[in-house]
Amino acid sequence: MGVGSSTPMAGWQRANVLAAAQYLRDVVTRMPDDTKAQTVYQGLLEVLEPARRTIRQQRELSEAARSSVSMREKRAGSERRRTDRRRVNLGSPAGVERRKNQRRTGRDRRTRV
Questions:
Q1: Per-residue pLDDT tens digits for 34-53
Q2: Who contacts 15 (Cβ-Cβ below 8 Å, separation ≥6)?
Q3: Closest CA to 43 of 6, 58, 35
Q4: Can you point out the beta strands (E) in the chain?
Q5: Rounded to whole angstroms, how far apart are CA atoms 21 and 32?
Q6: CA 91: distance to chain centroid?
Q7: What CA–CA distance (Å, rounded) separates 104 from 65?
Q8: Residue 8 — pLDDT band, cuts 50, 70, 90?
């Protein structure tokens, strides 16, 4: 049985996975703080019942999507500018205006006579 394959397990494979899951269930009941045993037990249950894995993945994806939306909303409010920068004349970047006169004085170059 490969990763992601949908072929059913042979009887002996299912029996071995079930025996391992039962052993880990006993370990978890004796030591409830053992997160590694709890995770392995849940993984074995997902092997025995693939619908469990699908439900877990959908739940994790929906939680991740929900948290990303809330983070985006939170960030958008704090990053919004108070005033529009384009309407404020800050002057030239060097601090001194380098042009001596207006470039388009007199007749406009775009009009032809």
A1: 899 999 999 898 888 888 88
A2: none
A3: 35
A4: none
A5: 15
A6: 41
A7: 54
A8: confident
